[in-house]
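Note to self: keep these together.
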Amino acid sequence: MVRLSLSSLFVTTSLLTAYGGAVNVLPRASVEKFDYVIVGGGAAGSIVASRLTEDPRTTVLLLEAGPTNEGLQVGEIPYVYARMFMSQYDYNYTLVPQASVDNRVLPYFRGRILGGSTSINGMTYTRGPKSDWDRIASYLSDPSWSWNALQPYFRKNEAFEDPPPAADGGPVGGRQQFTPSVHGRTGNIAVSLNEATEWIVPPTLEAAAAVGIPYNQDGNSGDPLGISWQQFAIKNGERSSVATGYLQTPSVKRRRNLVIRTDSHVTRILRKDGERGTRSYTFDKVEYVDQAGNTVVVQANKDIISSAGVIDTPTLLMRSGLGPQQELRDAGITPIVDIPALGKNFVEHIGLPITWSVNTTLTDDELDRNTTLYGEELAKWEQNGSGRLSQTSLTHIMFDRVPQNESIWQDPSVAGKPDPSGGSLAPHYEQIVSNKWTTLALLPATGNYIGMTHFVTSPTSVGSVTLNASNPTGPPLINPNSLNTQWDRYVLRYAVRRTLAYMNADVWKKYDTKPEFDLALDADDETADAFIRANAFGGAHGVATAKIGPRNSPAGSDVVGPDFRVKGVNGLRVVDASVIPFMPNGHSMAPVYIVAEKASDIIRWGR
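Structure:
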């Protein structure tokens, strides 16, 4: 027998009405009420929930579609983070076929677990260059968004841990690995460096010097250019996610004014009763399906806050009747508020891995093949968080620019326009050296390898996130439009050729490095572009699908104002990666943390 409550009957009725059905409306059962209902327990939602409930008088319900992260060993061990991809803890989204990558259908990783993507990602912690934040401040005409003004938030978020010294008691390699003055020490997210015990560290640094890449003591100082020690959200050999740092500390767990519900998939937000026909719309209810499959409605007395992320925030709002009105009609949804920019302006870092074989047996490849060896390392990790599983296969990160004498600067699509990076000290691309097989193809049964992954960090290609008109409640259509511009194609090609020069440095010769690809990528552009099309992947750092804009910006050019309120709507805010208006020049996790910290103050204090 199917049991249907009055509240679920009303929800079903509302859903049919929103999708164009004509039905009778039944009385609504009483609903739970909170001051704030936050949709999405990821990088932003967890921070906002934690900060708002520091006031014991404020009640918050945090709804997360996925399960809890607690007790999930595969999510705690840094080395095996990639096992979380395309698992039950991932939304398992795919991009629409991208013409720029031979129309391949590529996965797009999004965490479906408490902590969101911070519970499944590679844990890289990059703030971006100073100019990223100064550009937002200029765009919003608000100096509180500048790099200097945001420093209290950077420190509030971070608990940096000093790396262990070298055997002689000094810094590893005789060089400082970080700048103490730029880091926070008592924040919620632990940040550390991988231990310098790998064979690969000396040649990594020496090859950079050989090809003119300067050593950067700290890539999170506001100037990331050069090669620096990669910083990770890892503490005592375990992942430090937004869930562990902001929701699962003893003090937060004791809060009775914070309710967290996992396995609770939000389907829509609902308008306030009695407002049909008015010119000002208020949304005050959230509809979700709980773990048992029941449809539940809860009410926000102050605000609904969508923190569902760059993909799910725009699609949630669209399913609720907000968005580009013709697209909503095409999906069978009655438009309530026309928001042309929702789901548009999607920008993403396209990536490309390349692999070389080496003659040393000190790479991590055997750890990925040999279950006995893995079991030995797991025992170390379980005992005290030590061993190879306590970190990733990465130690250094490089950021660089395309020189002004390169021909792309004279291309009509680039010449006379602002630098896509947003500043003369901001990078155009990123390179990360890996102590293992990196290419998307399966690891060979034998051999040892190193790899380099590239990202275009200042892309000009712009895409969209839309509902699938034939299945609006199913997976959305995610289209980053990757490599759609001359600039993006040139930058990635240039980055690959810089890597070829890097791997040809004399220091690598004793390791007998040999490319695991047959093509001469520096021979001609067509050869390089064909290789890129066949091997690139879709990225996982997207932003701007519900972009923030100035208070008085032209109608339809953005989605939320400086107070994070959706323009033209009452009772609804957005706080997540979707509001960031420009592509961060680095990985997007830390920038989302800072946006969420600032938004929390704006919501709580009005500033």
